[in-house]
Design goal:
The complex is a heterodimer of chains A (289) and B (258). Helices cover 42% and strands 22% of the residues of chain A. By secondary structure, chain A is α/β, with parallel strands linked by helices. In chain A, α4 crosses α5 (119-132), α6 (148-160) runs parallel beside α7 (178-193) and α7 (178-193) packs parallel to α8. The two termini of chain A are 26 Å apart. The chains are: A alpha/beta (289), B mainly alpha (258). Chain A binds chain B through residues 52, 55, 57, 80-81, 84-85, 87-89, 91-93, 95-98, 108-109, 111-113, 115, 158, 162, 168, and chain B through 37-39, 122-123, 126-128, 130-137.
Chain lengths: 289, 258
Protein backbone atom coordinates (compact mmCIF):
# COMPACT_ATOMS: atom_id res chain seq x y z
CA UNK A 1 0.00 0.00 0.00
CA UNK A 2 2.86 2.32 0.96
CA UNK A 3 4.56 1.22 -2.25
CA UNK A 4 1.57 2.30 -4.33
CA UNK A 5 1.61 5.70 -2.64
CA UNK A 6 5.33 6.20 -3.31
CA UNK A 7 5.03 5.04 -6.90
CA UNK A 8 3.43 7.73 -8.98
CA UNK A 9 3.28 5.90 -12.28
CA UNK A 10 4.05 2.29 -13.02
CA UNK A 11 4.36 0.48 -16.33
CA UNK A 12 3.70 -3.23 -16.39
CA UNK A 13 4.68 -5.32 -19.44
CA UNK A 14 3.89 -2.41 -21.74
CA UNK A 15 4.14 -2.91 -25.49
CA UNK A 16 3.29 -0.21 -28.03
CA UNK A 17 3.10 -0.97 -31.74
CA UNK A 18 3.08 1.36 -34.73
CA UNK A 19 2.31 -0.18 -38.12
CA UNK A 20 2.84 -3.67 -36.77
CA UNK A 21 6.30 -2.83 -35.35
CA UNK A 22 7.02 -2.87 -31.61
CA UNK A 23 8.17 0.62 -30.68
CA UNK A 24 8.16 -0.34 -27.02
CA UNK A 25 8.52 -3.94 -26.02
CA UNK A 26 7.60 -5.40 -22.65
CA UNK A 27 8.58 -2.34 -20.65
CA UNK A 28 8.41 -2.49 -16.86
CA UNK A 29 9.19 0.75 -15.02
CA UNK A 30 8.23 2.65 -11.89
CA UNK A 31 8.39 6.39 -11.43
CA UNK A 32 8.43 7.48 -7.80
CA UNK A 33 6.67 10.62 -6.61
CA UNK A 34 8.79 13.73 -6.17
CA UNK A 35 11.82 12.44 -8.05
CA UNK A 36 13.14 13.26 -11.47
CA UNK A 37 13.84 10.69 -14.12
CA UNK A 38 15.65 11.27 -17.39
CA UNK A 39 15.00 8.86 -20.23
CA UNK A 40 17.94 8.46 -22.61
CA UNK A 41 18.51 6.42 -25.70
CA UNK A 42 19.57 6.66 -29.32
CA UNK A 43 17.25 8.26 -31.89
CA UNK A 44 14.36 5.95 -32.70
CA UNK A 45 14.70 3.97 -29.49
CA UNK A 46 11.15 4.89 -28.43
CA UNK A 47 11.86 7.62 -25.84
CA UNK A 48 9.09 10.00 -26.91
CA UNK A 49 6.65 7.10 -27.22
CA UNK A 50 7.60 5.92 -23.73
CA UNK A 51 7.10 9.43 -22.33
CA UNK A 52 3.71 9.79 -24.01
CA UNK A 53 2.67 6.33 -22.84
CA UNK A 54 3.62 7.20 -19.26
CA UNK A 55 1.69 10.47 -19.60
CA UNK A 56 -1.39 8.61 -20.84
CA UNK A 57 -1.30 10.21 -24.30
CA UNK A 58 -0.63 6.92 -26.10
CA UNK A 59 -2.53 3.84 -24.88
CA UNK A 60 -0.42 0.67 -24.77
CA UNK A 61 -1.30 -2.16 -27.16
CA UNK A 62 -0.66 -4.58 -24.33
CA UNK A 63 0.31 -4.26 -20.69
CA UNK A 64 -0.87 -1.70 -18.17
CA UNK A 65 0.00 1.78 -17.02
CA UNK A 66 -0.93 2.61 -13.44
CA UNK A 67 -1.37 6.14 -12.11
CA UNK A 68 -1.29 6.22 -8.31
CA UNK A 69 -2.11 2.50 -8.34
CA UNK A 70 -5.05 2.78 -10.74
CA UNK A 71 -5.04 1.41 -14.30
CA UNK A 72 -5.06 4.47 -16.60
CA UNK A 73 -7.27 2.79 -19.19
CA UNK A 74 -9.86 2.08 -16.51
CA UNK A 75 -9.88 5.61 -15.11
CA UNK A 76 -13.26 7.29 -14.94
CA UNK A 77 -13.74 10.74 -16.43
CA UNK A 78 -13.01 12.35 -13.05
CA UNK A 79 -9.97 10.09 -12.53
CA UNK A 80 -8.61 11.18 -15.92
CA UNK A 81 -9.28 14.82 -15.04
CA UNK A 82 -7.31 14.32 -11.83
CA UNK A 83 -4.38 12.94 -13.84
CA UNK A 84 -4.48 15.81 -16.34
CA UNK A 85 -4.77 18.41 -13.59
CA UNK A 86 -1.81 16.88 -11.78
CA UNK A 87 0.39 16.84 -14.88
CA UNK A 88 1.93 19.17 -17.41
CA UNK A 89 3.51 18.22 -20.73
CA UNK A 90 6.22 20.10 -22.62
CA UNK A 91 6.26 18.95 -26.23
CA UNK A 92 9.40 18.70 -28.32
CA UNK A 93 8.18 21.29 -30.83
CA UNK A 94 6.27 23.39 -28.30
CA UNK A 95 2.87 22.43 -29.75
CA UNK A 96 1.39 25.80 -28.91
CA UNK A 97 -2.11 26.30 -30.31
CA UNK A 98 -1.53 28.33 -33.45
CA UNK A 99 -5.02 29.80 -33.58
CA UNK A 100 -4.74 31.28 -30.09
CA UNK A 101 -2.73 34.17 -28.74
CA UNK A 102 0.02 33.57 -26.20
CA UNK A 103 -2.33 34.84 -23.49
CA UNK A 104 -5.06 32.36 -24.58
CA UNK A 105 -2.53 29.52 -24.79
CA UNK A 106 -1.65 30.02 -21.15
CA UNK A 107 -5.16 30.79 -19.95
CA UNK A 108 -6.83 27.69 -21.41
CA UNK A 109 -5.34 25.12 -18.96
CA UNK A 110 -6.42 27.33 -16.06
CA UNK A 111 -9.93 27.70 -17.46
CA UNK A 112 -10.19 23.94 -17.97
CA UNK A 113 -8.81 22.83 -14.61
CA UNK A 114 -10.18 25.66 -12.49
CA UNK A 115 -13.57 26.46 -14.03
CA UNK A 116 -14.60 28.38 -10.91
CA UNK A 117 -11.59 30.71 -11.11
CA UNK A 118 -12.71 34.26 -11.98
CA UNK A 119 -11.46 35.48 -15.38
CA UNK A 120 -9.60 38.33 -13.66
CA UNK A 121 -7.62 35.83 -11.58
CA UNK A 122 -6.84 33.75 -14.69
CA UNK A 123 -5.59 36.91 -16.37
CA UNK A 124 -3.54 37.90 -13.30
CA UNK A 125 -1.78 34.53 -13.19
CA UNK A 126 -1.01 34.51 -16.89
CA UNK A 127 0.28 38.09 -16.82
CA UNK A 128 2.48 37.26 -13.82
CA UNK A 129 3.98 34.24 -15.60
CA UNK A 130 4.60 36.24 -18.76
CA UNK A 131 6.12 39.12 -16.79
CA UNK A 132 8.55 36.80 -15.01
CA UNK A 133 9.83 35.46 -18.31
CA UNK A 134 9.86 38.74 -20.20
CA UNK A 135 7.13 37.69 -22.61
CA UNK A 136 4.43 40.10 -21.51
CA UNK A 137 4.85 42.31 -24.56
CA UNK A 138 4.10 39.30 -26.77
CA UNK A 139 0.92 38.35 -24.88
CA UNK A 140 -1.37 39.22 -27.77
CA UNK A 141 0.78 37.58 -30.42
CA UNK A 142 0.02 34.20 -31.90
CA UNK A 143 2.78 31.56 -31.81
CA UNK A 144 3.73 32.34 -35.41
CA UNK A 145 4.91 35.76 -34.19
CA UNK A 146 7.26 34.32 -31.55
CA UNK A 147 10.86 33.19 -31.93
CA UNK A 148 11.77 29.53 -31.43
CA UNK A 149 13.14 30.19 -27.96
CA UNK A 150 10.08 32.22 -26.95
CA UNK A 151 7.83 29.42 -28.15
CA UNK A 152 9.78 26.97 -26.01
CA UNK A 153 9.52 29.19 -22.95
CA UNK A 154 5.81 29.68 -23.64
CA UNK A 155 5.30 25.92 -23.83
CA UNK A 156 7.12 25.50 -20.51
CA UNK A 157 4.90 28.20 -18.99
CA UNK A 158 1.76 26.54 -20.35
CA UNK A 159 2.77 23.23 -18.77
CA UNK A 160 3.57 24.90 -15.44
CA UNK A 161 0.74 27.40 -15.17
CA UNK A 162 -1.47 24.97 -13.24
CA UNK A 163 1.40 24.08 -10.88
CA UNK A 164 1.36 20.37 -11.68
CA UNK A 165 2.75 17.65 -9.45
CA UNK A 166 4.22 15.78 -12.45
CA UNK A 167 6.00 17.38 -15.37
CA UNK A 168 6.61 15.47 -18.61
CA UNK A 169 9.20 16.97 -20.93
CA UNK A 170 10.16 15.89 -24.42
CA UNK A 171 13.48 17.51 -25.38
CA UNK A 172 12.73 20.86 -23.71
CA UNK A 173 16.01 22.43 -24.81
CA UNK A 174 16.10 21.18 -28.39
CA UNK A 175 16.66 23.76 -31.17
CA UNK A 176 17.09 26.79 -28.93
CA UNK A 177 20.13 29.02 -28.44
CA UNK A 178 22.40 28.91 -25.42
CA UNK A 179 20.76 31.83 -23.59
CA UNK A 180 17.27 30.44 -23.99
CA UNK A 181 18.56 27.00 -23.01
CA UNK A 182 19.91 28.49 -19.79
CA UNK A 183 16.57 30.13 -19.02
CA UNK A 184 14.59 26.94 -19.70
CA UNK A 185 17.04 24.89 -17.60
CA UNK A 186 16.69 27.38 -14.73
CA UNK A 187 12.87 27.27 -14.93
CA UNK A 188 12.98 23.48 -14.78
CA UNK A 189 15.46 23.54 -11.88
CA UNK A 190 13.05 25.83 -9.98
CA UNK A 191 10.20 23.40 -10.61
CA UNK A 192 12.32 20.51 -9.35
CA UNK A 193 13.23 22.51 -6.26
CA UNK A 194 9.50 22.85 -5.58
CA UNK A 195 9.27 19.03 -5.35
CA UNK A 196 7.59 18.36 -8.69
CA UNK A 197 8.23 14.90 -10.15
CA UNK A 198 9.82 15.29 -13.58
CA UNK A 199 10.04 12.78 -16.39
CA UNK A 200 12.22 14.02 -19.19
CA UNK A 201 13.56 12.90 -22.50
CA UNK A 202 16.67 14.90 -23.28
CA UNK A 203 20.02 14.75 -25.02
CA UNK A 204 21.25 17.73 -23.06
CA UNK A 205 24.07 16.89 -20.64
CA UNK A 206 23.66 20.11 -18.64
CA UNK A 207 19.94 19.58 -18.15
CA UNK A 208 20.50 15.91 -17.31
CA UNK A 209 23.04 16.68 -14.60
CA UNK A 210 20.80 19.46 -13.23
CA UNK A 211 17.74 17.33 -13.21
CA UNK A 212 18.28 13.62 -13.00
CA UNK A 213 17.75 11.66 -9.81
CA UNK A 214 17.25 8.58 -11.92
CA UNK A 215 18.17 7.47 -15.44
CA UNK A 216 16.37 5.12 -17.78
CA UNK A 217 18.43 3.86 -20.69
CA UNK A 218 16.24 2.79 -23.57
CA UNK A 219 17.53 0.78 -26.50
CA UNK A 220 15.41 -0.38 -29.44
CA UNK A 221 12.19 -0.14 -27.46
CA UNK A 222 13.42 -2.06 -24.42
CA UNK A 223 14.76 -0.84 -21.10
CA UNK A 224 18.49 -1.48 -21.07
CA UNK A 225 19.15 -0.13 -17.63
CA UNK A 226 17.40 1.91 -14.98
CA UNK A 227 18.39 3.20 -11.60
CA UNK A 228 19.77 6.13 -9.67
CA UNK A 229 21.69 8.64 -11.74
CA UNK A 230 24.97 8.03 -9.92
CA UNK A 231 24.74 4.29 -10.43
CA UNK A 232 23.71 4.28 -14.09
CA UNK A 233 26.32 6.80 -15.16
CA UNK A 234 28.96 4.49 -13.72
CA UNK A 235 27.47 1.46 -15.40
CA UNK A 236 29.96 -1.10 -16.60
CA UNK A 237 27.56 -2.30 -19.24
CA UNK A 238 29.23 -1.58 -22.57
CA UNK A 239 26.03 -0.85 -24.47
CA UNK A 240 24.82 1.53 -21.76
CA UNK A 241 28.09 3.44 -21.89
CA UNK A 242 27.96 3.44 -25.67
CA UNK A 243 24.42 4.86 -25.61
CA UNK A 244 25.34 7.51 -23.05
CA UNK A 245 28.29 8.61 -25.16
CA UNK A 246 26.17 8.66 -28.31
CA UNK A 247 23.35 10.57 -26.66
CA UNK A 248 25.50 13.13 -24.93
CA UNK A 249 27.12 14.42 -28.10
CA UNK A 250 29.54 16.62 -26.13
CA UNK A 251 31.55 13.56 -25.21
CA UNK A 252 32.70 13.03 -28.74
CA UNK A 253 33.26 16.68 -29.50
CA UNK A 254 35.26 17.41 -26.35
CA UNK A 255 37.10 14.12 -26.58
CA UNK A 256 36.76 13.58 -22.87
CA UNK A 257 35.60 10.76 -20.68
CA UNK A 258 31.90 10.31 -20.08
CA UNK A 259 32.25 9.96 -16.34
CA UNK A 260 34.53 12.95 -16.11
CA UNK A 261 32.08 15.13 -17.98
CA UNK A 262 29.04 14.08 -16.02
CA UNK A 263 30.89 14.36 -12.74
CA UNK A 264 32.19 17.78 -13.66
CA UNK A 265 28.62 18.88 -14.28
CA UNK A 266 27.49 16.99 -11.24
CA UNK A 267 29.59 19.30 -9.06
CA UNK A 268 26.94 21.95 -9.64
CA UNK A 269 24.24 19.64 -8.37
CA UNK A 270 24.51 19.61 -4.59
CA UNK A 271 22.96 23.05 -4.00
CA UNK A 272 20.14 22.27 -6.46
CA UNK A 273 19.55 18.88 -4.94
CA UNK A 274 19.50 20.35 -1.47
CA UNK A 275 17.00 22.99 -2.54
CA UNK A 276 14.72 20.31 -3.93
CA UNK A 277 15.49 17.85 -1.17
CA UNK A 278 14.84 15.13 -3.71
CA UNK A 279 18.29 13.61 -4.01
CA UNK A 280 18.15 9.96 -3.01
CA UNK A 281 20.63 8.53 -0.62
CA UNK A 282 22.98 5.72 -1.55
CA UNK A 283 21.65 2.23 -1.71
CA UNK A 284 18.34 3.17 -3.33
CA UNK A 285 19.36 1.82 -6.70
CA UNK A 286 16.80 -0.13 -8.65
CA UNK A 287 18.60 -1.81 -11.48
CA UNK A 288 17.13 -3.56 -14.50
CA UNK A 289 20.03 -5.21 -16.27
CA UNK B 1 -3.27 -13.50 -54.01
CA UNK B 2 -5.86 -14.81 -51.55
CA UNK B 3 -3.63 -13.73 -48.67
CA UNK B 4 -3.33 -10.20 -50.10
CA UNK B 5 -7.08 -10.06 -50.60
CA UNK B 6 -7.60 -11.20 -47.02
CA UNK B 7 -5.22 -8.54 -45.71
CA UNK B 8 -7.00 -5.89 -47.80
CA UNK B 9 -10.40 -7.01 -46.50
CA UNK B 10 -9.09 -7.01 -42.93
CA UNK B 11 -7.69 -3.51 -43.34
CA UNK B 12 -10.95 -2.25 -44.83
CA UNK B 13 -12.98 -3.85 -42.04
CA UNK B 14 -10.73 -2.16 -39.46
CA UNK B 15 -11.04 1.19 -41.24
CA UNK B 16 -14.83 0.99 -41.39
CA UNK B 17 -15.17 -0.08 -37.76
CA UNK B 18 -12.85 2.77 -36.76
CA UNK B 19 -14.95 5.23 -38.80
CA UNK B 20 -18.14 3.88 -37.25
CA UNK B 21 -16.65 4.18 -33.76
CA UNK B 22 -15.62 7.78 -34.53
CA UNK B 23 -19.15 8.57 -35.75
CA UNK B 24 -20.81 7.20 -32.61
CA UNK B 25 -18.33 9.00 -30.39
CA UNK B 26 -19.17 12.25 -32.19
CA UNK B 27 -22.91 11.56 -31.74
CA UNK B 28 -22.44 10.91 -28.01
CA UNK B 29 -20.30 13.99 -27.45
CA UNK B 30 -22.73 16.12 -29.47
CA UNK B 31 -25.54 15.02 -27.19
CA UNK B 32 -23.40 15.98 -24.18
CA UNK B 33 -22.13 19.25 -25.70
CA UNK B 34 -24.31 21.67 -23.73
CA UNK B 35 -24.00 19.73 -20.48
CA UNK B 36 -20.19 19.64 -20.52
CA UNK B 37 -19.89 23.43 -20.22
CA UNK B 38 -16.58 23.25 -22.05
CA UNK B 39 -14.94 26.26 -23.61
CA UNK B 40 -16.00 25.25 -27.12
CA UNK B 41 -18.90 27.64 -27.76
CA UNK B 42 -16.49 30.14 -29.30
CA UNK B 43 -15.30 27.48 -31.74
CA UNK B 44 -18.95 26.83 -32.67
CA UNK B 45 -19.61 30.53 -33.33
CA UNK B 46 -16.42 30.83 -35.40
CA UNK B 47 -17.43 27.77 -37.43
CA UNK B 48 -20.89 29.19 -38.17
CA UNK B 49 -19.29 32.48 -39.22
CA UNK B 50 -16.83 30.76 -41.54
CA UNK B 51 -19.13 28.11 -43.00
CA UNK B 52 -22.36 30.09 -43.05
CA UNK B 53 -21.80 33.82 -43.16
CA UNK B 54 -18.66 33.87 -45.30
CA UNK B 55 -20.28 31.58 -47.89
CA UNK B 56 -23.30 33.85 -48.45
CA UNK B 57 -21.84 35.55 -51.52
CA UNK B 58 -20.99 32.40 -53.43
CA UNK B 59 -24.29 30.74 -52.46
CA UNK B 60 -26.23 33.82 -53.63
CA UNK B 61 -24.46 33.83 -56.96
CA UNK B 62 -24.91 30.10 -57.60
CA UNK B 63 -28.57 30.19 -56.51
CA UNK B 64 -29.42 33.16 -58.71
CA UNK B 65 -27.72 31.52 -61.67
CA UNK B 66 -29.50 28.20 -61.17
CA UNK B 67 -32.89 29.91 -60.83
CA UNK B 68 -32.19 31.84 -64.01
CA UNK B 69 -31.13 28.72 -65.92
CA UNK B 70 -34.26 26.80 -64.92
CA UNK B 71 -36.62 29.61 -65.92
CA UNK B 72 -34.87 30.08 -69.25
CA UNK B 73 -34.86 26.33 -70.06
CA UNK B 74 -38.40 25.79 -68.76
CA UNK B 75 -39.71 28.93 -70.44
CA UNK B 76 -38.34 27.64 -73.75
CA UNK B 77 -39.35 23.99 -73.57
CA UNK B 78 -42.64 23.86 -71.63
CA UNK B 79 -44.72 26.10 -73.96
CA UNK B 80 -43.97 23.66 -76.81
CA UNK B 81 -45.96 21.04 -74.91
CA UNK B 82 -48.58 23.47 -73.65
CA UNK B 83 -47.41 22.89 -70.06
CA UNK B 84 -46.41 26.43 -69.05
CA UNK B 85 -48.39 26.06 -65.81
CA UNK B 86 -45.93 23.37 -64.67
CA UNK B 87 -43.14 25.95 -64.44
CA UNK B 88 -43.83 26.74 -60.77
CA UNK B 89 -43.94 23.07 -59.74
CA UNK B 90 -40.71 22.42 -61.60
CA UNK B 91 -39.02 25.37 -59.90
CA UNK B 92 -40.10 24.15 -56.47
CA UNK B 93 -39.16 20.52 -57.04
CA UNK B 94 -35.83 21.19 -58.72
CA UNK B 95 -34.65 23.98 -56.44
CA UNK B 96 -36.06 23.16 -52.99
CA UNK B 97 -35.97 19.40 -53.17
CA UNK B 98 -32.90 18.72 -55.25
CA UNK B 99 -30.51 21.43 -56.32
CA UNK B 100 -30.79 23.63 -53.24
CA UNK B 101 -29.57 21.02 -50.74
CA UNK B 102 -27.05 19.26 -53.00
CA UNK B 103 -25.42 22.38 -54.45
CA UNK B 104 -25.20 23.99 -51.01
CA UNK B 105 -23.57 20.76 -49.81
CA UNK B 106 -21.06 20.93 -52.66
CA UNK B 107 -20.18 24.52 -51.85
CA UNK B 108 -19.75 23.77 -48.14
CA UNK B 109 -17.75 20.58 -48.71
CA UNK B 110 -15.45 22.41 -51.15
CA UNK B 111 -14.93 25.36 -48.79
CA UNK B 112 -15.32 24.13 -45.22
CA UNK B 113 -14.66 20.42 -45.71
CA UNK B 114 -11.20 21.06 -47.11
CA UNK B 115 -10.54 23.79 -44.54
CA UNK B 116 -11.53 21.55 -41.62
CA UNK B 117 -9.54 18.54 -42.84
CA UNK B 118 -6.48 20.70 -43.48
CA UNK B 119 -6.70 22.56 -40.18
CA UNK B 120 -7.15 19.40 -38.11
CA UNK B 121 -4.45 17.59 -40.09
CA UNK B 122 -2.03 20.41 -39.35
CA UNK B 123 -2.98 20.30 -35.68
CA UNK B 124 -2.29 16.56 -35.55
CA UNK B 125 1.11 16.94 -37.21
CA UNK B 126 2.18 19.81 -34.95
CA UNK B 127 1.00 17.88 -31.85
CA UNK B 128 -1.58 20.55 -30.99
CA UNK B 129 -4.21 17.83 -30.64
CA UNK B 130 -2.00 15.96 -28.17
CA UNK B 131 -1.52 19.24 -26.31
CA UNK B 132 -5.30 19.49 -25.88
CA UNK B 133 -5.41 15.92 -24.58
CA UNK B 134 -2.53 16.66 -22.20
CA UNK B 135 -4.56 19.37 -20.46
CA UNK B 136 -7.67 17.21 -20.29
CA UNK B 137 -9.61 18.54 -23.26
CA UNK B 138 -11.26 15.89 -25.41
CA UNK B 139 -10.45 16.58 -29.08
CA UNK B 140 -13.83 15.16 -30.03
CA UNK B 141 -15.85 17.49 -27.80
CA UNK B 142 -13.61 20.54 -28.30
CA UNK B 143 -12.54 20.25 -31.93
CA UNK B 144 -15.03 17.96 -33.66
CA UNK B 145 -18.43 18.66 -32.07
CA UNK B 146 -18.40 22.46 -32.58
CA UNK B 147 -17.40 21.92 -36.20
CA UNK B 148 -20.11 19.30 -36.76
CA UNK B 149 -22.75 21.54 -35.16
CA UNK B 150 -21.45 24.65 -36.92
CA UNK B 151 -21.39 23.04 -40.35
CA UNK B 152 -24.80 21.37 -39.90
CA UNK B 153 -26.49 24.55 -38.66
CA UNK B 154 -24.86 26.54 -41.48
CA UNK B 155 -25.81 23.92 -44.07
CA UNK B 156 -29.49 24.08 -43.05
CA UNK B 157 -29.54 27.88 -42.98
CA UNK B 158 -27.67 28.21 -46.26
CA UNK B 159 -29.95 25.69 -48.00
CA UNK B 160 -33.01 27.74 -47.05
CA UNK B 161 -31.18 30.84 -48.21
CA UNK B 162 -30.21 29.09 -51.47
CA UNK B 163 -33.85 28.08 -52.09
CA UNK B 164 -35.05 31.62 -51.55
CA UNK B 165 -32.40 33.15 -53.79
CA UNK B 166 -32.88 30.50 -56.48
CA UNK B 167 -36.58 31.27 -56.65
CA UNK B 168 -35.84 34.99 -56.54
CA UNK B 169 -33.33 34.63 -59.39
CA UNK B 170 -35.91 32.83 -61.49
CA UNK B 171 -38.29 35.73 -60.88
CA UNK B 172 -35.69 38.26 -62.02
CA UNK B 173 -35.07 36.43 -65.28
CA UNK B 174 -38.78 35.79 -65.86
CA UNK B 175 -39.18 39.56 -65.97
CA UNK B 176 -36.96 39.63 -69.04
CA UNK B 177 -38.83 36.83 -70.82
CA UNK B 178 -42.43 37.33 -69.79
CA UNK B 179 -43.01 39.88 -66.99
CA UNK B 180 -45.30 38.64 -64.19
CA UNK B 181 -46.35 40.76 -61.15
CA UNK B 182 -44.21 39.84 -58.14
CA UNK B 183 -47.17 38.95 -55.92
CA UNK B 184 -48.73 36.73 -58.55
CA UNK B 185 -45.38 34.99 -59.16
CA UNK B 186 -44.70 34.19 -55.54
CA UNK B 187 -48.32 33.28 -54.81
CA UNK B 188 -48.13 30.69 -57.60
CA UNK B 189 -44.84 29.39 -56.17
CA UNK B 190 -46.35 29.06 -52.68
CA UNK B 191 -49.31 27.19 -54.12
CA UNK B 192 -46.93 24.74 -55.77
CA UNK B 193 -44.96 24.30 -52.53
CA UNK B 194 -45.94 21.15 -50.61
CA UNK B 195 -45.06 20.37 -46.96
CA UNK B 196 -43.01 17.40 -48.12
CA UNK B 197 -40.87 19.75 -50.24
CA UNK B 198 -39.97 21.63 -47.07
CA UNK B 199 -39.40 18.43 -45.11
CA UNK B 200 -37.24 17.05 -47.90
CA UNK B 201 -35.03 20.16 -48.07
CA UNK B 202 -34.60 20.27 -44.29
CA UNK B 203 -33.85 16.56 -43.93
CA UNK B 204 -31.39 16.60 -46.79
CA UNK B 205 -29.56 19.69 -45.57
CA UNK B 206 -29.30 18.21 -42.08
CA UNK B 207 -27.96 14.87 -43.35
CA UNK B 208 -25.55 16.55 -45.78
CA UNK B 209 -24.30 18.81 -42.97
CA UNK B 210 -23.57 15.83 -40.75
CA UNK B 211 -21.89 13.94 -43.60
CA UNK B 212 -19.71 16.88 -44.72
CA UNK B 213 -18.51 17.70 -41.20
CA UNK B 214 -17.98 14.17 -39.90
CA UNK B 215 -16.08 13.11 -43.03
CA UNK B 216 -13.88 16.23 -42.92
CA UNK B 217 -13.06 15.89 -39.22
CA UNK B 218 -12.46 12.16 -39.58
CA UNK B 219 -10.04 12.68 -42.47
CA UNK B 220 -8.30 15.47 -40.57
CA UNK B 221 -7.71 13.21 -37.59
CA UNK B 222 -6.51 10.35 -39.81
CA UNK B 223 -3.41 12.35 -40.69
CA UNK B 224 -0.40 10.72 -39.08
CA UNK B 225 2.90 12.46 -38.57
CA UNK B 226 3.72 13.84 -42.01
CA UNK B 227 2.57 17.10 -43.61
CA UNK B 228 2.39 15.35 -46.98
CA UNK B 229 -0.67 13.51 -45.68
CA UNK B 230 -2.59 16.76 -45.22
CA UNK B 231 -3.46 17.49 -48.88
CA UNK B 232 -4.49 13.84 -49.26
CA UNK B 233 -6.82 14.22 -46.29
CA UNK B 234 -8.37 17.33 -47.85
CA UNK B 235 -8.92 15.56 -51.17
CA UNK B 236 -10.49 12.57 -49.41
CA UNK B 237 -12.74 14.88 -47.38
CA UNK B 238 -14.09 16.33 -50.64
CA UNK B 239 -14.29 13.07 -52.58
CA UNK B 240 -15.92 11.01 -49.84
CA UNK B 241 -18.17 13.93 -48.87
CA UNK B 242 -19.49 14.26 -52.43
CA UNK B 243 -20.04 10.53 -52.89
CA UNK B 244 -21.80 10.07 -49.54
CA UNK B 245 -23.99 13.13 -50.14
CA UNK B 246 -25.02 11.78 -53.57
CA UNK B 247 -25.88 8.40 -52.04
CA UNK B 248 -27.80 10.00 -49.18
CA UNK B 249 -29.60 12.28 -51.65
CA UNK B 250 -30.73 9.33 -53.75
CA UNK B 251 -31.84 7.41 -50.66
CA UNK B 252 -33.82 10.30 -49.15
CA UNK B 253 -35.48 11.08 -52.51
CA UNK B 254 -36.40 7.42 -52.87
CA UNK B 255 -37.85 7.30 -49.37
CA UNK B 256 -39.80 10.52 -49.88
CA UNK B 257 -41.60 9.02 -52.91
CA UNK B 258 -42.32 5.62 -51.39
Amino acid sequence: MADAAATLIKLQDVTVRFDGRDVLHDVNLSFPAGRSTVIMGPSGSGKSTLLKTVAGLIPPDSGKVFFRGRDMLQLTESGMKELRKASGFIFQDGALWENKTLMENLALPLRVHFPQMPPAEVQRRVVKALEQTGLLESADLRPAGLSGGEKKIASVLRALITEPAILFMDEPTLSIDHTMEGRVTQMIADVKARGCAILAVTHNARLTSTLADRLVILDAGTVRETGDFDQVKRSRDERTREILSEVLGEIASYDTDLLALLEEQDKNRPHQATEGGQRPGPGTTERTP
Amino acid sequence: MVEALGRWAGRKARDYSYALGFFFLVLRETALFVRRRQVAFRVLVQQILFTGVEALNIVSLVALSIGAVIIVEGGTILPRFGQTSLMYSILIVVITRELGPILTAFIIIARSGTAIATELGNMVVSHEVEAYVSIGISPISYLVVPRVLGVTISMMALTIYFNFFGLFGSYLVSQLIKPVPVLEYFRALLQALQPRDLISTLVKSFVFGVIASVVATFQGFKVGSSVTEIPRAAIKAVGQGFVLCFLADALITLISYV
